[in-house]
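From: lab user (bench 3)
To: helpdesk
Subject: output format question, protein + S-adenosylmethionine

Hello, I'm new to running complex predictions and I'm not sure whether the block I got back is the full result or only part of it. Here's what I submitted:
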Amino acid sequence: MSYRNSHVKKGKDYDDFIKNQPFDAYMASVEAELLTKIITTNYKESVPRYLDFASGTGRIIELLEKYAKKSISIDISKEMQEQAKKKCKVTEFICADITQENISIEPVDLITAFRFFGNAENNLRMSVLKLLNTYLKENGMLVINNHRNPLAIKNILHRITGGNRDLDLSYFKLRSLLEQCGFKIIKTYAIGAWILRDKYAQSLQPDSKLTNRLESAFRSGKFSILSPDMIIVAKKI
Ligand SMILES: C[S@@+](CC[C@H](N)C(=O)[O-])C[C@H]1O[C@@H](n2cnc3c(N)ncnc32)[C@H](O)[C@@H]1O
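Helpdesk reply: Thanks, we reran it on our side. This is the complete output you should expect:
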């Protein structure tokens, strides 16, 4: 089981990479806005117990720990967690590979896992999803993203013009994995579905009126099939 991380930056380089790549920074800012909305609408009071799996440098848990009574980060990399510790105020950190170590945590109400599944190989995706399912309370919520969709128009055009980006996790494949691992998708949000070319993605004007209008017009879940990033909200069944 492996994680294709040769291209994934470590520690502070990871944060700098996301900040300095216009399209990655754009996806991160839309994810932050949507996640806040998802959590505050689904949990009127705070989330009793929250786990961020593969939390890396804390990009997601830094944003969400304030909405939880108890927040826990799991990541295999000490170097990534060192960065996260600088940002998080109340989160408990567990440095471990959940597929190799038996980690006992009390069941949680909410799990997030961002920028993990797209980079992981299929057997790792499957074993992580099955384990995450066991960490969730009945009816608990899983919120994940997929920023490596081979069917995104931008990625299809990249391929037919000679690009060799190695992507395999379509919306359909992810939905089937989730179902096999005991989850049911309840909502999907498309991010950047209107961005058709890499060239345009790299020169985005995130706060322009046009960008905001296009982003909201193409946000509906049905555009996830073709979007370069998506957020999926699923329930444990
Ligand atoms: C691309 S980073 C994503 C970090 C963060 N979730 C985000 O969205 O910015 C992927 C993270 O997965 C972690 N990871 C990879 N395999 C893992 C495993 N088996 N168990 C726990 N964490 C793992 C890596 O150490 C890395 O920090």
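A quick orientation on your result: The pocket of S-adenosylmethionine is lined by residues 3, 8, 54-56, 59-60, 74-77, 80, 97-99, 114-116, 119 (CB under 6 Å). Let us know if anything else is unclear.
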